[in-house]
Amino acid sequence: MLNNCFGILSATESRDNLRRLAAHRAVASIPIGGKYRVIDFGLSNMVNSGIKLVGILTQTDSRSLRDHIGSGGAWDLNRRSKGLYMFHDKRNQSVSYDLQILKDNKEFLSRIKEEYVVFSSTYLIANVDIEDVVRQHQRTGAVVTLVYKHTNEANKNYIDCGVLQINPNGEILSVEKNKGDNKDANISMEIFVMKKSYLESLIDKVSYADYARSLKSVIYESLGKIDIKGYEHKGYLGCVNSLLTYYNTNMDMLDVETTKELFFKEGRAIYSKSKDSVPTKYSRGSKVSNSLVANGCEISGTIKDSIISRSAVIEEGAEVENCIILQNCKIKTGCKIKNVIMDKNVVLEEGTELRGSNIYPLIIEKEMAK
User: Is it the case that residue 7 has pLDDT exceeding 80?
Assistant: First the structure.
């Protein structure tokens, strides 16, 4: 277990391509997989490796994220020594940058005694062995180690993510944005391991005008100048940087092998804020196939290939297919919906029919419900 590392999670990702789904919440706090939030994966990766001090960098309007994280008890981070810290952008800007937040909290960094830092974005979904990443970093003596995923589906998935060029020695030579031109690519997972002293030197060297940038962009500019090595993650990698990738990542969780990879790794569980609720009630005549259904639901209708979050109600005669239904939604008798993302607390009146596509899923937000 890692006793000489601390973690930093950057929950400052752009919300632009997630539209209404992220209008009132950070990307990190978007519900996923029925009962989880996006940040749960990165945070669990860190605590599973033995990291006991984690800082979360947030945007100004991060109420939903703060409500979810709380004191960090779900991740055993509600402790007197070390534990969980949350830092937000003090400038009340519409766009926040993690480099600015780090600069504003240099004093906090200076008090940390751990030698190494694991810095990670939150919008990439994976179950990563952080302990093994740090071991490789220490063994190779690299200045920075960057986790990546090799894929042959880069023309379909991970659009706008970083594509890395890596030489046979494992050194990362360059990075460019994935435009979907090639199938084979090494996708940056935006998990960086470095010494705390190097992180502090990056913050000190960047001019004040350049703090309105991300830390990853500063590290990427060092490619070819310092020793940055790659660590290949061979498991599943999901992505939440658009409505389509959010939809596809949820649908991936219906695959048994993906579910095992993400949630049932020995010693590497994914933790989330617990909510005590009764088991889901399935009425006589209900039909559910290839779906994930969380606790507290009432199911009387038909569900196929869908993700159903806590306390949802699917009435008799309602049909739900290829949908993501968030918390406390109610779908009344006679409704037929397909390829729909339904935000929390939405009520669909009797007989409503909605249909998106698997390329352009239809999203229904609370204000649009009757």
Answer: yes
